[in-house]
Fold this protein.
Amino acid sequence: MKKIDFILAGVGGQGTILASNILTEVGLELGYDVKKAEVLGMAQRGGTVESHVRWGEKVYSPLVEEGEVDFLVGFEMLEAGRWSLYLKKDSTVIVNRYRIPPPAVNLGKAVYPKEEEIESMLKTIAEQVFWVDAMKIAQDLGNPAVAGVILLGVLSSRVGGSSDAWLKVVERLVPAKFQELNRKAFLAGQEAAST
């Protein structure tokens, strides 16, 4: 059973924690030993949020070390760029094409990097970088809150495991009234990954 290390990085309020909970449960569903750790930096105020999720035959530590990440999911473009040092040479990065400028940018003390700069930084290490308009897809589905589940749909197409296993967990972890919407979001993510 292959070890797989993930980092999900975003900004408070983007659904990063729900996505990491789903990813953790999917790993268990697929028969892996799983560990998870989260760091919330003033998450309620739009601060950074990162989740480390590790799947393996036996996982001892929840934290992924630098140079060990197999899959980085950036819920926000700059957050994806911040984690480039953690990537392995053959890693995959999935980036939501969405910007939430940090306070320093809003105050004029820093400049938000161009998309090409972020991509260049990631591509120096990662084997594959996938850009996804998850927020646009989520808005088209009627609810921007499902962008994280769309990103999981993209991730599932790279990681593997049956769609049924992923959807079973998604449906278990979201409120009943949002199950169908999240199901559509997950499938839209899988579809986006194949285009």
